[in-house]
């Protein structure tokens, strides 16, 4: 097979050629490069004399040069581009000429020569997930109408943005590995990373292959005009962590034969409003008595017991304390609260923070966070929260991001423990650690947190209008990262665009 690689004297292109010639020594490669500020023949020195390699100095905007280079080629891999943002400001004409006109020249030539495949790639690997309103989703789970969390580049505020396109491609080549004890991400070398400058704290994009010695991933701030009573939000957090609903029905003999609505209408004296005695006048034999009790499993000596009692009293709830074989509880009865708490999911495995609560302002969200940590968490230098619900681990992480915290989710497999002669079997659970320290990747003495590697498989990206970034997760770590929709002017012929 014969390939044309444009921009093959640059960092990404030369590494691709080197990789391809080593893995497929029988294939031929033609390298078309203009040798601008980003291209150097020094990068190709180790394979320059390979009999299956040929270099042509030329511009992808030059139709004649492209036609010559594409003769007999089956696959085109496009790396030639004005990819640096600063260059687009200094020389916008060259930027537009190369990226738009140059791409069009290559596409026209590819169609004319019946090229089998045309690759132009910049994406995430298959294990990276996007955070949507439906939770964390792999690329194959994303929908056209999904909204993702994104950072406004000017205000640094966290916003929900609808994705415009979902692009999935097959990829075989180099990747940039970002590895620390807190991060583990893989991106293609020309992927745009969203970073924060150290001093001015401005948001900028930088290619993964050009990351510096210190790279800071930004946090965002959440703004909302939805204020919710802080006592209510604290109670919601405690209920999600350590509460459950106990709805009961009891059938009683109906003494009047009337429904409650009819009894109030007929039995009430119209003059003084008092109820009058009456015999069995209706046809209803039984009445359903409904009980809407909410239990909170907070022991008497628990760290948040006194605060919870105060919150319940301030909310005007007639609460009670109970101690028995099942443990120590606080409970109260309320249909209104029972209906509200139903939105938190049924059963421990399905618990979640409801969407209406996550829309609240910062102060309300902080009260919710406090209730969650007080109930099923642990306070410390880095607070932790535990849950057996995958969905709750996701919505709790969203809560942390909105509070400018950095969450990290650790998945714990099924465990068995022997306690007082009894075998206790536990299912899969999630531990979320929380910190305010921003994520960074560094290159320096004793540090090798940025490295090159090889990858074969699916890569993906989405188009996020205006902000051009989204919140992504890989192996439990979250960062706001760029979406590289600008490079998608040329797609592989077999790529899937939803």
TrEMBL record:
Pfam families: GDP_Man_Dehyd. SUPFAM superfamilies: Hedgehog/intein (Hint) domain (SSF51294), Homing endonucleases (SSF55608), NAD(P)-binding Rossmann-fold domains (SSF51735). GO terms for biological process: intein-mediated protein splicing. This is DOD-type homing endonuclease domain-containing protein. The keyword Acetylation does not apply. The keyword Oxidoreductase does not apply. GO terms for molecular function: endonuclease activity. Signal peptide: none annotated. InterPro entries: Hint_dom_sf (IPR036844), Homing_endonucl (IPR027434), INTEIN (IPR006142), Intein_endonuc_central (IPR004042), Intein_N (IPR006141), NAD(P)-bd_dom (IPR016040), NAD(P)-bd_dom_sf (IPR036291). Residues 235-405 form the DOD-type homing endonuclease domain. Keywords: Autocatalytic cleavage, Protein splicing. PROSITE patterns: INTEIN_ENDONUCLEASE, INTEIN_N_TER. The lineage of its organism: Bacteria, Candidatus Woeseibacteriota. It comes from the Bacteria.
């Amino acid at each position: 097979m014969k390939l044309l690689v444009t921009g093959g004297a640059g960092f990404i292109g030369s590494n691709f050629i080197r990789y391809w010639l080593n893995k497929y020594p029988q294939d031929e490669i033609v390298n078309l490069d203009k040798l601008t500020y980003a291209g150097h023949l020094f990068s190709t020195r180790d394979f320059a004399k390979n009999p299956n390699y040929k270099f042509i100095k030329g511009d992808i905007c030059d139709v004649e040069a492209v036609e010559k280079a594409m003769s007999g080629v089956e696959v085109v891999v496009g790396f030639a581009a004005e990819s640096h943002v600063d260059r687009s400001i200094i020389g916008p004409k060259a930027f537009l000429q190369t990226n738009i006109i140059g791409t069009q020249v290559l596409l026209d030539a590819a169609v004319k020569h019946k090229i089998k495949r045309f690759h132009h790639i910049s994406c995430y690997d298959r294990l990276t997930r996007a955070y949507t309103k439906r939770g964390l989703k792999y690329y194959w789970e994303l929908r056209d109408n999904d909204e993702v969390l994104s950072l406004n580049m000017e205000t640094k505020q966290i916003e929900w943005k609808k994705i415009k396109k979902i692009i999935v491609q097959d990829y075989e080549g180099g990747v940039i590995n970002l590895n620390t004890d807190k991060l583990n991400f893989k991106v293609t070398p020309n992927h745009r990373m969203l970073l924060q400058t150290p001093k001015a704290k401005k948001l900028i994009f930088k290619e993964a292959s050009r990351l510096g010695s210190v790279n800071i991933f930004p946090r965002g701030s959440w703004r909302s005009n939805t204020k919710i009573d802080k006592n209510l939000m604290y109670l919601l957090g405690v209920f999600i962590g350590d509460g459950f609903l106990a709805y009961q029905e009891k059938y009683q003999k109906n003494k009047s034969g009337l429904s409650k609505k009819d009894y109030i209408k007929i039995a009430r004296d119209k003059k003084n409003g008092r109820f009058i005695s009456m015999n069995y006048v209706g046809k209803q034999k039984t009445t359903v008595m409904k009980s809407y009790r909410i239990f909170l499993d907070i022991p008497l000596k628990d760290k948040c017991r006194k605060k919870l009692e105060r919150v319940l009293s301030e909310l005007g709830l007639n609460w009670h304390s109970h101690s028995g074989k099942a443990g120590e509880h606080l409970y109260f009865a309320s249909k209104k609260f029972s209906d509200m708490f139903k939105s938190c999911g049924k059963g421990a495995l399905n618990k979640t923070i409801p969407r209406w609560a996550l829309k609240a302002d910062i102060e309300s969200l902080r009260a919710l966070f406090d209730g969650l940590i007080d109930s099923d968490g642990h306070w410390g230098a880095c607070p932790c929260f535990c849950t057996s619900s995958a969905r709750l681990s996701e919505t709790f992480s969203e809560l942390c991001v909105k509070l400018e915290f950095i969450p990290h989710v650790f998945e714990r497999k099924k465990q068995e423990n022997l306690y007082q002669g009894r075998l206790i079997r536990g299912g899969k659970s999630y531990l979320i650690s929380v910190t305010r320290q921003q994520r960074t990747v560094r290159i320096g003495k004793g540090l090798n947190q940025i490295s090159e590697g090889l990858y074969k498989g699916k890569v993906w990206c989405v188009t996020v209008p205006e902000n051009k970034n989204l919140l992504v997760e890989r192996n439990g770590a979250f960062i706001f990262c760029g979406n590289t929709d600008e490079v998608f002017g040329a797609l592989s012929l077999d790529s899937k665009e939803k």
